[in-house]
Specification:
single chain; Transposase Inhibitor Protein From Tn5, Chain A, domain 1; 8-stranded mixed sheet; 8 helices; disordered C terminus
């Protein structure tokens, strides 16, 4: 499923979305390596007043002090300065302030190792501790779990609609299916004595309640996206 228009590349699409989303100044935006790009990082910090955390690709050029090397070389050679426990996981950490060849502002560079795998994170907030950087980035994992499940179980990538609006509605329908599934599984896990029909009814009622609240509070779901629910009678 592709929401990127022909006129704009992915970076321009993200920047446009960030500007339209009206995110509060000082808020934190988290990216994977696909979107940790100079245009996006600089727009967040210098234009919108947002802080950003992202995973750096191994081929990016990094300069710390007088040394310049690729992120891949840097994270392989770095010596860890401390070990911390974050979300019940032991993680080795090393942090420094550095510059990237394509980014005009200094960034906090955090190399972390967990289960013998190393990654390099960058953060625009130089005052944020390395532990906070890692913990904030790890919060993305729930998003990854959602997309994996949405693709494997709910056919997220099988949308045949060509219009952006149609694809947005498909995304909402898949999200609703995922939400109902999670609520049902949660109810089953606590060994509810209610029958399956009652469980499904509770799950859908819970989903509708959350959706109504999101209409007012969650900036990602604008009015247009909710028309799909109105069309099928879930929201009046």
């Amino acid at each position: 499923m592709k929401l990127v228009g022909k006129e704009k590349n992915k970076n321009e699409e993200v920047i446009q979305w960030l500007k339209q989303a009206e995110i509060n100044e000082g808020s934190l935006v988290i990216f994977d390596s696909w979107y940790t790009h100079s245009e996006i990082i600089e727009t967040c910090k210098m234009v919108l007043g947002l802080e950003a955390i992202g995973m750096a690709k191994s081929n990016l050029k990094l300069k710390i002090g007088d040394l310049e090397k690729s992120v891949g070389q840097y994270q392989r050679q770095v010596e860890f300065t401390k070990e911390v426990k974050i979300l019940s996981k032991k993680i080795k950490i090393h942090e420094e302030i550095g510059y990237f060849k394509s980014i005009r502002i200094p960034l906090k560079v955090v190399v972390c190792e967990m289960n013998s795998k190393r990654i390099t994170l960058v953060c625009t907030d130089l005052k944020m501790s390395a532990e906070e950087v890692v913990k904030n980035y790890m919060s993305r994992w729930k998003i990854e779990v959602f997309f994996k499940s949405a693709k494997q179980r709910f056919n997220l990538g099988d949308c045949t609609l060509r219009s952006t609006k149609g694809q947005e509605h498909w995304m909402i329908i898949v999200s609703v299916a995922y939400l109902v599934f999670k609520v049902i599984m949660k109810l089953l896990a606590i060994r509810s004595k209610e029958g399956m029909k009652e469980i499904i009814h509770l799950a859908i009622s819970y989903m509708i309640s959350m959706t109504k609240e999101a209409k007012e509070e969650y900036f990602m779901l604008n009015y247009g996206l909710f028309s799909a629910f109105v069309d099928v009678g879930l929201i009046t």
